[in-house]
Amino acid sequence: MSKKENRRNMLLRYNKERQRNVLAEPGEHEFVLVLDQLKPSFNVGKTFRSAEAFGAGAVHLVNIDAFDPAPAKGSFRKVPAVFHETFAECYAQLSEQGYSFFLLSPDDATSLSAAKLPQKSAFILGHEEFGFSFDVQDYAEMQKLTIPQFGTVQSLNVSIAASVVMYEYVRQQSCKL
Question: CATH number, domain at 51?
Answer without folding.
Answer: 3.40.1280.10
